[in-house]
Amino acid sequence: THVCDKCGQSLPEAGLHFDVSSGVVTLNGNAITLTRPEFEIFRMLVKRGKNPASQLDLFDWLYQLTPESDEPDLSVIRSFIYKMRKKLSSVGLNIRTLRGRGYILEIPQSA
Questions:
Q1: Does the CA dihedral 31-37-43-48 come out positive or negative?
Q2: Are 10 and 16 in contact (CB under 8 A)?
Q3: How far apart are CA 88 and CA 33, in angstroms?
Q4: d(CA 109, CA 93)
């Protein structure tokens, strides 16, 4: 694990950086901008590392559900993941689905 010299975040690989204020994710000098919800999902996936984050985990992380909340609409998470995969693939990152368990962020070893 490495620490980003710009934001102080703990990162799995040295070539990965992200800026909390702007939503910019950079891998080996290649940058993309994520929307605020996408960026929050990205942060959760980085934080979880090899431990999958379920759709409900991600929904709770984004919307801070309370016990009185209605049933969450998890299609929102699937939609964010779909859009994020397109953006992240352009810089060499991937969100992998582990059936029945959730999502993990795959970072190339050369990062």
A1: negative
A2: no
A3: 9
A4: 11
